[in-house]
């Protein structure tokens, strides 16, 4: 995608051929700043602190982190130790483990002196795969938006509500939930996006920044406005991303997604989930009991970050000093509330039968 007319991916190899560059997402949308990550500890910190976020992007950056670890020490012991360390940084999204497992499988049969080179090549392949996967997700999701547009009066936009950020900054490029929207806009379709703020980290601001940079009409709204918009006929479809989808179609995504699905069900509005193959976890049957939900710092709830009156960026406390806070970062939307899944292989129902038919090699 583009920033001020210049195309970017969300992660790329630095000129030294060893380090990687990312955008510091804790600085967005107020400032566009690049970070250079040169070892696995820096990668782990960037993931843990959410300088890099979004399930597919975390996987890609984690893969490069493991390659950096092998450059320092190519032993199998270090491979396993570093993979375990990186995997612990964000437990809910399965893409990270998928990418680390893929690096481990790619290097094990190489002699020690070839392992780092093989790991870097595999990390690059993971990035290229993510880009093409998300492009195809956009193509399949675009057909949904076209169907809605065909039923609407001339001049009335297709109105999409999304939650959190599942755009190109959360992936290597294109995004998952936003990929159909970008492709619809680029094809000349009249589309408008309702952007949830997504407390407490306000990832909706990243979605708004992305959409604005690309020229897509959108409106930033509070998390609790979605139900009201649906009740008043102002939403045609809900499309969200996901951090893990189970074999029966349960969906783990940013906290608040479940409430959007409930409101969509009550108002007969289709609720679609966009996911790449790396997000599908066929080892889990019951998302509610088996998916680990990351509990993040209470400081993310009691304080919020934004631009200060004098122009700087900082945090201000919004809760009483004496009040404790809880911060579950994700929730699980049961498959029964999901209209369908948008994958790179096509659209399907949120069920074990449909997913098994689409991904037989994962069964």
TrEMBL record:
It holds the Pfam family IF-2B. Pathway: Amino-acid biosynthesis; L-methionine biosynthesis via salvage pathway; L-methionine from S-methyl-5-thio-alpha-D-ribose 1-phosphate: step 1/6. GO terms for biological process: L-methionine salvage from methylthioadenosine. Keywords: Amino-acid biosynthesis, Isomerase, Methionine biosynthesis. It catalyses: 5-(methylsulfanyl)-alpha-D-ribose 1-phosphate = 5-(methylsulfanyl)-D-ribulose 1-phosphate; 5-deoxy-alpha-D-ribose 1-phosphate = 5-deoxy-D-ribulose 1-phosphate. Catalyzes the interconversion of methylthioribose-1-phosphate (MTR-1-P) into methylthioribulose-1-phosphate (MTRu-1-P). Also catalyzes the interconversion of 5-deoxyribose 1-phosphate and 5-deoxyribulose 1-phosphate. Part of a bifunctional DHAP-shunt salvage pathway for SAM by-products. HAMAP family: Salvage_MtnA (MF_01678). This is Methylthioribose-1-phosphate isomerase. It comes from Roseomonas indoligenes.
